[in-house]
Each structure stands twice: as C-alpha cells, then as structure tokens.
Amino acid sequence: MTTPAEVVREHTDLDGEDLTHLQGLMAWWGMLADLSFADLLLLAPDREGGFVILGQMRPSTTQTVHPQDLVGRVVEEAGMPLVARAWRLREMVEGERELGRGERVRSECIPVRREGRLLAVLDRESPLSVRRRPGELERTYVSLFGRFARMVMEGAFPFPYGQDVPEGEESPRVGDGVIVLDEGARLVYASPNAVNAFHRMGVTSNLAGLRLAELGVDDSAVPTSFETARPVTVEIERPPDVVVMLRCIPLLAGGRMDGALVLLRDMTDLRRRDRLLLSKDASIKEVHHRVKNNLQTISSLLRLQARRLTSEEGRDALREAERRIQSMAAVHEILSRDARDQVPFDQIVPLLVRMAEDAVVAPCPVRVEVSGHAGELVAEVATPLAVVITELLQNAAQHAFADLSEEPQGEEGEEGRVHLDLRRAGGRLTVRVQDNGQGLPEGFRLGQPASLGLSIVKHLVADQLGGTITMSSGAGTLAEVSVPVPEGAAQPAGPPVG
Fold this sequence. Notes:
Elements: H1 4-11, H2 16-36, E1 39-45, E2 51-57, E3 74-75, H3 81-89, E4 93-98, E5 104-114, E6 117-127, H4 136-154, E7 178-181, E8 187-190, H5 192-200, H6 221-228, E9 232-238, E10 242-253, E11 256-266, H7 268-308, H8 312-337, E12 342-344, H9 349-358, E13 366-372, E14 376-378, H10 379-399, E15 416-425, E16 428-435, H11 452-464, E17 468-474, E18 476-484
Helix pairs in contact: 2-4, 7-8, 8-10, 9-10, 10-11
C-alpha cells in the first residue's frame, strides 16, 4: 500500500517539515471528515504537472463518494479545476465537479499553509443529492468544520505534530460526543451522545451557558488548552466507576482563542474490561508461579531421594527425572513473569543449555553452542519442546563422547561440541542438535529407542507436538525435530540466541 510519505518523495518537492505538517493534518482529519459529512482529499502539485493525491479520508457520519483508493493517483488540472483554481488564487474555492461516471459532487477546496507557504489543497467532496433540511447537529458540525478550515488556511491547524495526536482505538471520535465552548469556556452546544455521557457522570441539569466546573465536572483540560492553544486530553473518573475521556481542542481565529471543541467518550466499559484483564493476568501469573514452585519442590524431593539411594543406576534415573521437571519449570518461570499466551522461548534456551552442561559426565570437555531463533511459542508447544531439547542435549553430551580421550590431540586438542540450531519458517520450527561425537551405534533404529530419554522425545514430538523427528550419523550424530507452529505465535527477532 502506498503511503503519503512515499507519494510526497516521489511526486513533489515538499521538504521534511512540510511532510510533517501534512502528516499532522492527516492525523486529525478523521475528525474533520466526520464534522463535514464528506470525503476529504489532500492534493499537492506533481513535478510533471497536474496534482497528486497524497491522502484521502472517508467520513463515518455519512456514506462515501470515493469507495476506491485514490492515494498516489495523479490527476490533470482539467480533471480537478477547482483544486487548480484554489492553488492559483491561494484562497478557498467552492463549486461542483464531475466524477467521470455521470455523478457530480460538491467540492470545497481549502489551501493548506505552513508559515505562510502554500503546501497543498484540502478538497472536501460531498454528494449533491437532495436531503432533508439539516438539523441542529448537522449545522453545528459543518460550522465547526468551517472554523477548522479557516485555521488550516491560516496555518494554525494542525497543531505541532505529536501534540496529543488523536491516535489509537481509544481516541474519542465525533460520534462519541461533541460539546462546543465559547471564548469564555462556556458550553453553547452538546450533542445527544455528549448529553448521555454527562448523564452517566450524574449531571442532569441544563448545560447551556455553564462552564464544566459549574456542572461539577473536572475541567482541568479546558484552562490548560485555552492557555497553551494546544489540545489536551484527560480522563475523568466519577464514583462509583464511571470513566469519561475528554479531549479539548482549541478553536482559533486570527491567532486568538475563539472557543473550543470538546470530544467526549464514555470509557466506563473499556476501563472495566481493562481491570478484569489485569485481574485475570495476575491470577494466571500466580497459577504459573505456583506450578513452578510445585515442580521445583518435586525436583528437590527427587534430588533428596537420589542421595539416599545406594544404586548408581537408581540415582541416575532420579537425576534425569529431576532435569526433565526442571525444564518444564523453566517454562512456567517465564510465564509467571508475563501472563501472555506466548512464551519467549529464546529466553528458555540458555537455561536448558546450562542444565545440559551441568549434567555432562564425559571423559573430555563438552561445549554447547546455540544459533538461530525460536521466537515466541504458545505454552502448549513450549513446555513439551523444552523437555525434548533437554533430552536431546543431554543425550548428546552424555553418550556421544564416551570413547573420546581426555588427552589433547592435534593443534587444538580433543573437545566435544554440541550445536543447537533453531530455525523458524513456513509455519514450522526446526530444531537441530548436531554433535561431533562417535555417531549412532550400529543397528540403531529410532522406532525402537533403547533409552527412556529417546522414548520420551519420540512420544512428545509425535503425539503432543504433531511433528517429526529423524536421527542420522555422519560427522557425529544429527537429531532433527520439525514441529508446526501456530499462526498466532510471534516471529523471532533480534540477534541469535547464541
């Protein structure tokens, strides 16, 4: 999709500050389109002649006259004569124009200035269809658009980019509620939805001619906006649980304050939902914390039991069970810090590597290297995958180097190396564990694994993860696991974990 910045760079001679000014206008023009009950087009002269459309905005208060995407389109002056005239005369021009499909629209072309320089033309286009006589709401909204249009021509609107820019889903829109204040900050108009918001706050008296403070409403945003001539947004909380977002937008005329437009949005249900989500997140984090503690308790019990056994084989079995439980606890440790459904698996891998290195019983040094990314995984994948990686690393570290000597050989000496590689692509995660050891024993078959560890790996990969596993010998042993990754899981980012 073509962006306004790309269109500006490709078709116009506007500089960076000009672009910032126009981007500020487009950040606000959802409000302008709703107030004007019309489509808005922003056009600038193209280097090759004619005008290029930098952006468009459709209203949410009426139907659009431009259902197609026009951004980046270059039009000749003959196709937009009113825009060309407004550019040449440097003043507002009104009239009608043909859309080219037998339909005519009313066009109001407004010069866009910054520091006295003409940058572009804002074209307001609305259908010519005969409508009922407009009511007070429509007349008020269109009058407000006219006041903003004059600010655009004077270079007073938009406000400096980044100052309370109306972005995000929670930002109040015209349809949420509108009140208009005069130069004395007294209320002269309130839309029906704004009246409803006042009722939710417990204000049922007549609103006309009163300041917000006189209505018992927090008006801290209004004097600040009037003093600084900048938009200000606050959230008003009224007992027991009513929350209303208030955005005060100054209206200027000739550089002086001429009143303000105030947008209201009832945030009560959204804030109640946010509180419920926070409570739910806290509960989930507590559950994971308790599961982690329980797993660590079980791990400690196994360790104590292993110390009391006289059989070396029994002690080894309990130690292996302890490490498997610790790998599951590592997942819940991460989840206990962040209650999202996604687990940042790259944070778990170093813990698994450290456990494998601590468990090494080999006649030579063994070093584990890590490369690649796993990204974020759902907990249902992360927990069994952690056990799988633990088993593969432990299997490689313990069995691949049984015949290697402790005595150095060659220039660098004999060293066991295990390489863990994680690759994410095409909706699958591939885990490769490669060692430089003695390879698989003769007659080895994955379908009939002799060790409990490989039996666990085969079961987890095939039954719980729905993936595949292969093992082969070459320059050592290569174990490769491939599992499907749910589409909701985040993609990996950043430097390799190793």
